[in-house]
Amino acid sequence: FLRENSKGKDIWITQMWDDWDVKSPIHKRTIDHPERYGFIDISQNSQLTGYTNWENAQYVFNYIKDNPRPVNSTKIYGSDSGSWLSRGINTQHAIQTFFRNVIGGFASSRFHRPPSGLGLSRESINCIKTVRKAESLVKMWDIVPRMDLLKTMEKNQAYLAAREGKAYVIYFTGPFKCSLDLIGYNKSFKARWINIETGEWNRTEKIKGGAVVELQCGFGKGALVVIK
Q: How do residues 83-92 score in pLDDT, each as one tens digit?
């Protein structure tokens, strides 16, 4: 109906399925039909926590790599006032999901309304401020997920998108450390840290390439570090 009455305008539509598992057959009704659905929404993936949340989203991007389309998360679930706390769907989960989405290549991400999400709150505003500051140095569409360049960390401690040798953006979920492979680039880089709890710049440090470099996040609720 919308397309029939579009008067020559492009109309993009999609479907938001309730199944939390984006690998399930019902999601293929959208993913397998680019001729009908111009973009994909996998909001329900935010019902899954930790590394599984990242892994399943990346499954979708890999699945459509030969015919890519925008992937959105119109709803990010999670709030300390929500009803799914026993499953870990809390404020920290929502914040982590937002940054995993940004690093992971989503076209858009939005916090769901309270009480099931953070809405427009201090926490969500500081998340957005953090990303905008990072984007003043590196555009997210110029980098791609490169988890293969991160070493010596446990799952769900750090996530990386990069244009190798040019720019790297790492999201730390907490006060963890990881190693970044800069072996092929024997030059100096600057690492600029943003505290996601405040959305403000913090320390800047020089990094020498040509080696695997250890990075330590000193922020309890996590940080973005932009390296270029």
A: 999 999 999 9
Interstrand relation of 71-76 and 108-111 (parallel, antiparallel or unpaired):
parallel
Dist CA 134 CA 202 (whole Å): 12
The whole-angstrom separation of Cα 162 and Cα 68 is: 19
The SS3 assignment for 181 reads strand
* Domains and their CATH numbers in the chain: 25-120 (no CATH), 140-227 (2.60.40)
| Residue 59 · residue 53 · CB < 8 Å | no
Q: At what angle do helices 91-104 and 122-135 cross, to 10 degrees?
A: 20
pTM: 0.95
Q: What are phi and psi of 176, to 5 degrees?
A: -115, 175
Q: How far apart are CA 101 and CA 72, in angstroms?
A: 9
φ/ψ of 128, rounded to 5, equals -65, -40
